[in-house]
Amino acid sequence: MSHKAWMKTVPTENCDVLMTFPDTTDDHTLLWLLNHIRLGIPELIVQVRHHKHTRVYAFFVTATYESLLRGADEIGLRKPVKAEFGGGMRSFSCEEDYIYENIENELYFFTSQERQNIIRYWLENLRAKQGEALHNIHFLEGQPIIPELAARGVIQQVFPLHEQRILKRLMKSWVQAVCEAQPLDDICDYFGVKIAMYFAWLGFYTSAMVYPAVFGSILYTFTESDQTSQDISCVVFAIFNVIWATLFLEEWKRRGAEFAYKWGTLDTPSESIEEPRPQFRGIKRISPVTSAEEFYYPPWKRLLFQCLVSLPVCLACLTLVFLLMLGCFQLQ
């Protein structure tokens, strides 16, 4: 297909994830990847666009509401349940979709980051078949295609798109606000639980630091200039810090558990049974623990790499540092 034909394509009106390519990308690469995405992930809607000034190709990726519901079921996305069905949070199930809040509203059931997480999950788990290759790139059986192409520079970047309307609202209520509580629920809805939990901890930590700051200032003001008074003040401040640190940790455990329960991550599955990262390579086998198919990397290979590569490199670096230290002493 010619470049002019690509330029005539129209992007989707509602784009969730954007995938861009270098300006040197040929049509064969684009067609190969586009065909694999459409065959391997039929739930996705992909439109191709070519920017005539930068000569950069881009895939505009989105999905229908029905496909997103199936994706939410596949990844076990936790959603709030209606009060008449018990309330709380539960992993989404298409078979019981009627029990979830706002399920009838396509615009508000999924947040933007939930839509993007589902789409990126599909993209990053597009696996290669045995013997597949693109130019000089030969894929292993079951290897994720898109992370490998991104690592090789075939794909320039894959990123979710921002919603300017929500960003402007967060700018006013969060960034530009002075002496106001953080809109943690809005942050969670837009950026996800991890980002919201970080800023919740940061706000709690900043507020908790007021107590040792005030107590230390008062102690410093009323401490005499003699050595005995200063020593006593140091001991008192150290005892205060020990008590403060203990109360701080215990209070954050309670506050963090409240946020985790509120945002539906308190009883999420352990990382040991989650999907491994897309870049992980290994052989397929049946897990002796879960009886599910998984990628397995033998421990002896990891130990061999550590002994033949990691350990010699570390020893060489330590030797170099030691020799440089001796050289500095000699120069002095």
TrEMBL record:
GO terms for molecular function: chloride channel activity. It is found in: Membrane. Keywords: Membrane, Transmembrane, Transmembrane helix. It comes from the Eukaryota. The chain crosses the membrane at residues 198-220, 232-249, 303-329. Belongs to the anoctamin family. This is Anoctamin. It comes from Pachyramphus minor. The lineage of its organism: Eukaryota, Metazoa, Chordata, Craniata, Vertebrata. The gene is Ano8_0.
